[in-house]
Design brief:
Elements (H helix, E strand, L loop, with lengths): L3 E6 L2 E9 L5 E3 L4 H5 L19 E4 L4 E4 L2 E2 H7 L2 H10 L5 H13 L7 H6 L7 H15 L12 H23 L13 H10 L10 H13 L7 H11 L4 H13 L6 H15 L4 H8 L20 H16 L5 H15 L1 H5 L7 H11 L6 H22 L31
Antiparallel strand pairs: 1-2, 2-3, 4-5, 5-6
Helix pairs in contact: 3-9, 3-18, 4-7, 6-7, 6-11, 7-8, 7-18, 9-14, 9-17, 9-18, 10-11, 10-18, 11-18, 12-15, 12-17, 14-17
Bound molecules: carboxymethyl coenzyme *A.
Carboxymethyl coenzyme *A binds next to loops.
Length: about 425
């Protein structure tokens, strides 16, 4: 018999099994608790709730460890590419040459959008946020591939996954071009994933974009570092939607919406806006730090803090080094980078941030790299979404592959009015 936990309440004892993960994490399995005791557990914001068991990504937030399928993020960042890591995350193992070629060929075969989809892009106002366009258009793809709506089919999964991973960058680039009133640039089958995205973003019909290897590598690394991050808000949303047996594209479109918020993926845009504000106001960062510590100011140091990491986010370390390197190669001196470094240095010495274990997260330096590449800040969260796609696909697959998946349906503790009776309109009195 495995480990067990005991819960005592009102003179009764309830025995609960303890599930132990492969890295030694312990979780009390309370799935039968309500049945046996009438009790539910309450955990506002799911801060201490394991919503599933998963084999995809491991994080140790206290030690600052992140691994995809067991491989440390530092090794993957140094030796792998986004597409190889995507394969690893989705299928569980690093691909052989033949598997990688087949995967790349499938991505190439699925990079185009149905020509009629261009009409959808044309109907968004020029001011539309690209995240709104991205989620709408990912959902719209299923209209052009009706077999998607039939739901999960194991024999179709490879094509569906490749279709989503490939088309998302075409949609993202088209969304950017439309928002600027620029003609859409079609993908080039001879280009690899990230180069092709940069080509669709920045080439012109009369001139191809000059693909600098350092820029392609920097963006590929950003995609790779965002590729999965276990049960964050957007991935949990994808799993939630998938659990109702909605299709992969509907699930991913929901993930994009969850990612958009400034406390999640939208933080990369919010960081640059914060740095721009600090720069414009002539503050060296100290006034902003003081405001971020004041709960009444409504301000937070964006790009700092994490629900899971209570140590330096390992992705932020890699991105910071890449940021220094890219700006040097491109010979760019960005005052926002100096402000960011100053903020980091000041915060890491400040007892408010130290006591709360608030460190830079993945979003703190990524925007500075994207600015250097020429990606506008409205597109930053879209870049995050492209990067996170393998994680969403893998989590979707875990849900649909698992025989016993039940629809996700949390409980609540109701604190509203108890039963009362309908009062007709002419007899109601205002309570205000
Ligand atoms: N600036 C100032 N204070 C902060 C910050 C911050 N960035 N983050 C947390 N705190 C304080 C918070 O006010 C609270 O203080 P107290 O204990 O006195 O009430 C304490 O630290 C704990 O914060 P929390 O809100 O309970 O932490 P959480 O786990 O609910 O939130 C977070 C995590 C990432 C939403 C939060 O740290 C935050 O808002 N950070 C800024 C936004 C950001 O950078 N988001 C990107 C996250 S990483 C990428 C991703 O996952 O998408």
């Amino acid at each position: 018999m495995g480990k067990q936990a005991k819960l005592e309440l009102d003179g009764k004892t309830y025995i609960l099994p303890v599930v132990v993960g492969s890295e030694g994490e312990h979780g009390v399995d309370i799935s039968t608790l309500r049945q046996t005791s009438g009790l539910i557990t309450l955990d506002d914001g799911y801060g201490n709730t394991g919503s599933c068991v998963s084999k995809i990504t491991f994080i140790d937030g206290d030690k600052g460890i992140l691994r995809y399928r067991g491989y440390p993020i530092e090794e993957l960042a140094e030796k792998s590419t986004f597409i190889e890591a995507a394969y690893l995350i989705i299928y569980g193992e690093l691909p052989t040459s033949a598997q990688l070629k087949r995967f790349s060929d499938l991505l190439t075969a699925n990079e185009m959008l149905h020509e009629s989809m261009k009409n959808h892009f044309a109907t968004f106002p020029a001011t539309a946020h690209p995240m709104a366009i991205l989620s709408s258009m990912i959902n719209a793809v299923s209209c052009y591939h009706p077999r998607l709506i039939e739901g999960y089919k194991a024999d179709m999964f490879d094509v569906q996954a490749a279709r989503l991973l490939s088309k998302v960058r075409t949609i993202a680039a088209f969304a950017y071009r439309v928002s600027r009133g620029l003609p859409a640039i079609y993908p080039k089958p001879s280009y690899k994933y990230t180069a092709n995205f940069l080509h669709m973003m920045f080439s012109e019909p009369y001139q191809d974009y000059d693909l600098k290897p350092e820029v392609v590598r920097a963006l590929d690394l950003i995609f790779l570092l965002h590729a999965d991050h276990e049960q964050n808000c957007s991935t949990s949303t994808v799993r939630m939607i998938a659990s109702s047996q909605a299709n992969l594209f509907a699930s991913a479109a929901g993930g994009v919406c969850a990612l958009w918020g400034p406390l999640h993926g939208g933080a990369n845009q919010a960081v640059i806006e914060m740095l721009e504000d600090i720069h414009r106001s002539g503050d060296d960062g100290s006034r902003f730090i003081a405001a971020a510590k004041d709960k009444n100011s409504g301000k937070r140091l964006m790009g700092f803090g994490h629900r899971v990491y209570k140590n330096y986010d390992p992705r932020a370390k890699i991105i910071k080094a890449q940021c220094d390197n890219l700006l040097k190669v491109l010979n760019i001196s960005d005052p926002l980078l100096d402000i960011a470094k100053h903020l980091e240095e000041a915060a890491l010495k400040d007892s408010y941030f130290v006591e709360r274990k608030l460190y830079p997260n993945v979003d703190f330096y990524s925007g500075i790299i994207m600015r250097a590449i020429g990606i506008p800040k409205e597109m930053f969260t879209v870049i995050f979404a492209i990067g996170r796609m393998p994680g969403w696909i893998a989590n979707y697959k875990e849900i649909v592959d698992h025989q016993g998946t039940r629809i996700y349906r949390p409980r609540q503790i109701y604190t509203g009015e108890t039963e009362r009776h309908f009062v007709s309109l002419n007899q109601r009195k205002s309570k205000a």
